[in-house]
């Protein structure tokens, strides 16, 4: 799912990049040029669905 979200995010205006770390747990941090770009990413329906699925599986997701 992280790879799919990175590909989707990279198509969004204002996307700067992403860093991920995976071991026992994982974290992915995305970087954006401005707050409006972040708001648009948060409003993306596929991103919202990925977050919902993560919550259902017990992943502690945070989004700015």
Automatic annotation (TrEMBL):
Gene3D superfamilies hit by this protein: 3.30.70.100
Domain ABM as annotated: residue spans: 3-52
InterPro entries hit by this protein: ABM_dom, Dimeric_a/b-barrel, Jasmonate_Hydroxylase-like
Protein origin, superkingdom: Bacteria
One Pfam match: ABM
Protein name as catalogued: ABM domain-containing protein
């Amino acid at each position: 799912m992280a790879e799919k979200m990175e590909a989707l995010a990279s198509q969004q205006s204002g996307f700067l990049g992403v860093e991920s770390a995976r071991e026992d747990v994982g974290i992915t941090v995305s970087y954006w040029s401005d707050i409006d770009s972040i708001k648009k990413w948060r409003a993306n329906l596929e991103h919202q669905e990925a977050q919902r699925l993560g919550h259902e599986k017990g992943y502690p997701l945070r989004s700015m």
